[in-house]
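Q: Got a minute? One more chain.
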Amino acid sequence: MNKVLSELLKGLRLVDPQQSKHIAVFPIFTTVNHSPDYLTLAEALEQRLLLVTEVSPHGSVPELRVINKAQKPVLLLDGEEVRGAKQNRVLNTSILVPADEYVEIPVSCTEQGRWAYVSHEFSDSGHVLHASLRARKTSDVTASLVAEAGFQSDQGKVWDGISELACKLSIDNSNTGALRDVFEAKQADMDAALADFPLIPQQRGMLVMINGEPVGLDYVSLAPASARLHGKLIKSYVMEALARKPKKAKSPNAIRDQAHEFVAEAVACKAKEFKSIGLGEDCRCKGQGVVGSALFYEKTVIHSAFFRVDEQEQVGHMSEMSRRRDNRVY
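A: Always. Here it is, folded:
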């Protein structure tokens, strides 16, 4: 594994978990205090410094155009959703968009039944893809990079994952099969959870356990950016927990041991680096039952995420049918 990422993970400090029902959230802290400055997607859009559109009037499902008008980079987080234009999409990987430049970014559709303009520009949906589907997508994007096919997901798996979530939550999904509609149907549960898992000053992310088992870890290099993303990430993990039946509680010591073991498993992952779409390098990590990624820029980990996966998800196989569907240009 990359030395910078390995040392960062080994140096993470997990404070006492915040617990509610079958969810435990370990706030993450670090002694690393240097990081390039950047804006988040939400604040750049709020300040009208970022423009997200289809790549052309006709559009292309797996790509969007992003124009950064700010004088600093903008972080787009893996799994963040934007809504509008011809259909809602999520980011396939974390990207640091250079200042005063534009890039075309790899995305996946989260609204299967719509291909028609509702707006010229995209806005922030306020949501991040739930953890199990982020894990599957991470595996598939990694497999695509290794196969020299770029940052492609398996679009069929993304749609199936959204349908599966709606089914588990007994939600009659919209005609367009939109992820956003599933999230909004559980808005009250997510709002309640935000009170149960408050942000702590200088927090840099979180490690989340469901039923005493590690589900995912998100690290963000800047405390203000982490604060901006905190609500989105909490809601994404809460949605994951809502889809899993509660099990017998484990002891606090057992939960803490499992959390530290998960970090150790992340450190033990094998890693390979690829040029990022924007600034820096995209590091892909794979271990026994763990997949992850990290965005590096100026020898700093800007964002890193690791997920627990089962053997089938870890394969990251993209079928030829899904690949053709992914690349379809309307």
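A: The chain has a mean pLDDT of 93.
Q: Perfect, thanks.
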